[in-house]
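Lab meeting prep.
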Amino acid sequence: MLSKQLFGRLKGEDVFLFQLTIGDVAVEIMNYGCTIVSILTPDRKGNKQNIVAGFRHLSDYAADHPYFGCVVGRFANRIAGGRFTLDGKTWQLSLNDGVNHLHGGFSGFNRKVWQVESMIDSDEQCGVTFSYFSRDGEEGYPGNLRVFISYRLTNENCLIVDYRASTDKPTIVSLSNHSYFNLSGFVQESISDHYLKINADYYTVKNENNTPSGVIERVRDTPFDFTTSKPIGQYIGELTAERGYDHNYVLNNNRRTSATAASLYEPFSGRLMTVYTNMPGMQLYTANWWDGTLAGYHGNVYHQHSAVALETQAFPDAPNQPGFPSAVLRPGELYAKTTSFHFQTANQPVDTG
């Protein structure tokens, strides 16, 4: 079932809240920032709770927050110095993260009111497609970029996010959804006891400016090793500089078809979420700098390590790293990426993938 209601107005435009309900899952999405506002899934006893961080009011989303639930772009994650060279020309992007460009800049895709393109409502799935036209020069990026984001919830309890984009000039693109998950429904204040498995044997090493050094290292015998399911908190205390995980994993897939990226399991509720994607990387971020100053959807405040983000993406700083998979999009090409989230319950961690 699909429903639509007015959520408020921003920048003189209507913002709508779409409610997708099918199978055992209900999802709320709005067209401001293509944002996932809530995902209600059942625990092993059938009790439904919202498992993502967010707000109940549009005014809170319009204020500063750590990218709750939104789509980030034109380029997810960081670009060193906000600068890259393409076809012999150097482009300077906005610097909204110290010396770096982060998640599309000061007014990235997360700050835009997207157009509602179409809706679908059938026995098998329900969903909505949004579009945005990013003009040549926006935040410093070259090319007029037309973007379509589709959210579909299936009767098999799977939320599918399709990303499509085309350009009239060579440019760079990496789109991601920035939802934060706590599968206990935030009943447990920390995600340290969540079991995580990441289908990645390597990660990209960072330098002192929080961008990739260009070195790719094995995760084996390091705190970054989630090749088997283990509690997120098992080694998190060893990452003192970052205060937790904020690292890009090199996914073990061929990037042409969707493959398992990660599985996340919460033992108290029994909720299990499996992530699939055809993107090359995934950022693991454990809300390291949340400090209890934001109160959210659940009525509680968000503390350090209250949730975890699993951001499928191109590698950070890919335009400046020739050894990384390309994030260049040229005229006549279609940026076509998909990430899906499958919700289940289980009695123990599942080593999928």
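Slide two material, second protein:
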Amino acid sequence: MLRNTSNTVEFFIVGFSDAPDLQIELFLFFLLVYLLTIMGNLILILLISSSPPLKTPMYFFLCNLSSLDIVYTTVTSPKLIHIFATNNGRITYGGCITQLFFFVAFWNTEYFLLTVMSYDRYVAICRPLHYTMIMNWRLCTIAAVGTWIGGMVGAISPTTVTAMATYNSSSKINHFFCDIKVLEKVAIGDTTSIRSVILVQGTLLVMTAFMLTLVSYIFIISTILKIRSRTGKYKAFSTCASHLTVVTCFYILIFDLYFRPKSSVSMSQGKTLTVLFVYIIPLLNPVIYSFRNKDVKRALKKVIQELIKSYRKRLEAKGGSTKY
């Protein structure tokens, strides 16, 4: 038994070794998902940054969400892809704790950011005449920076208590990344501090963010129902439909993964739910916001038309130059 120092402790990530015949398929799947996630979110960021009609608070926060999805999935994807490619699940103590810190930090940030975005939709629908005054750029910048800083600060406590635990010189992590709940299982001795942090901070953070989001949407739905015209109701609902879809998927997976009784969730089911939460949601976010948002589709169509027009001009220029 050895103390947890970077020189003596090493972890082994089991990953999906229980499916040895599917390693190539899983490698290609996770590589494709990772590349599509990066590409989709980068396109959305570039689209928002280059389109004047999208320079609004809602799209500013969406840009932050896409940036978050990129770094969030990057915390675990490269290592997992490397494990599939090399069949080597070894990860150092320092690498494991670093992965844990950034995973928890970006996870916290997503809670905060989705809550801020729900408040933005509340102001837009419930107090439209005061929207530009309330959601000014100073407030939006402070809120965005606060979500990132808050996520980092919130990760210090769980990472610290996990890092201070005692581990064997070589421990198997029956997961595909260094998750705090799995590290708590392989830790030696008293793990009360880790369980306490998971219970208190995790539950407090999740429930606070969920309740604030829920209250925002109670007011939003109440306001929409008071609109007399069907067209007005549809227009108001369409402004928050994308965010509501993302929030619903996010919290369904969270509650299913972390709040169900342990006995009702097998390890394979837990891994599958975590894959949906860690990899599929960041992949679907830009798709949901693109296909359910007229402004984004309009901006994307305009960019594509400009690219086609520019390409045709280049062809005409080349064709003209060959005539002389």
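Talking points for slide two:
The chain has eleven helices and three strands.
The CA atoms of residues 38 and 180 lie 25 Å apart.
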